[in-house]
């Protein structure tokens, strides 16, 4: 049995969840609305910002999402489940990094050329730098 995620207008999503099922060809599937996930940075794995404007000096981007160690991917992991972010924050860490049970402290802020700023000019510059990085 598989899973499918469908993007659709809100009215359509409400109608599908009220019906409870979605018919696709000869198959029928349960329908439910997914919970909204918090904005998460995949560099430091904290919530409240994204990679281009990450205020953290910590780079956890190459760590395994399952055990938190470097050098392998989660699909190949045989280690115990451990969230490095929550462990570093002194919270329970027996869950996947970035999973539903993961609730690291929120961080807000932007780093522009090494200085933290919240001005429009700084935000615009951060956006330009992020655009240049991914162009």
Automatic annotation (TrEMBL):
CCHC-type domain mapped to chain residues: 64-77
Which GO-annotated molecular functions does the record name? nucleic acid binding; zinc ion binding
Short name of one Pfam family for this protein? zf-CCHC
Coiled-coil ranges from the UniProt annotation:
none
Q: Which InterPro entries match?
A: Znf_CCHC, Znf_CCHC_sf
Q: Which UniProt keywords apply?
A: Metal-binding, Zinc, Zinc-finger
Q: Which SUPFAM superfamilies match?
A: Retrovirus zinc finger-like domains
Task: Specify the protein name.
Answer: CCHC-type domain-containing protein
Organism of origin is Euphydryas editha (Edith's checkerspot)
